[in-house]
Specification:
Elements lengths: L1 E4 L2 E4 L4 E7 L6 E9 L6 E6 L5 E3 L7 E6 L4 E6 L8 E9 L4 E3 L3 E6 L1
Parallel strand pairs: 2-11
Antiparallel strand pairs: 1-3, 3-8, 4-5, 4-9, 5-6, 7-8, 9-10, 9-11
Length: 114
């Protein structure tokens, strides 16, 4: 199971740090990522990070968001800076395990006011 936290209401230009802790051991985890879904839109990839710490970002967040993982805590983080109203969405974490199992966390709402 995944526990995501860190969402909230912030003004444009502000920052939030999202975190998501996995219950299974980190050595069983391949890829960890963050997705988001705004009302009326499909869920989209925001950023992900592999076990080798290779990262991928959506073009819309490059230079503003940073994904990282703490293997000792089985946790993935998303540092969001210079937030924009269009970043408003429910953010979900996802973990891909080496055995093929995939797990989604419950979403955390990020609301950016203009």
């Amino acid at each position: 199971q995944l526990q995501a936290s860190g969402g909230g209401l912030v003004q444009a230009g502000g920052s939030l740090r999202l975190s998501c802790a996995a219950s299974r051991r980190i050595f069983s985890i391949n890829r960890m990522g963050w997705y988001r879904q705004a009302p009326g839109n499909e869920r989209e990839l925001v950023a992900d990070i592999t076990s080798g710490s290779n990262t991928t970002y959506a073009d819309s967040v490059k230079g503003r968001f940073t994904i990282s993982r703490d293997n000792a805590k089985n946790t993935v983080y998303l540092q969001t800076n210079n937030l924009k109203p269009e970043d408003t969405a429910v953010y979900y974490c996802k973990v891909d395990y080496w055995d093929g199992f995939k797990s989604w966390g419950r979403g955390t709402l990020v609301t950016v006011s203009s």
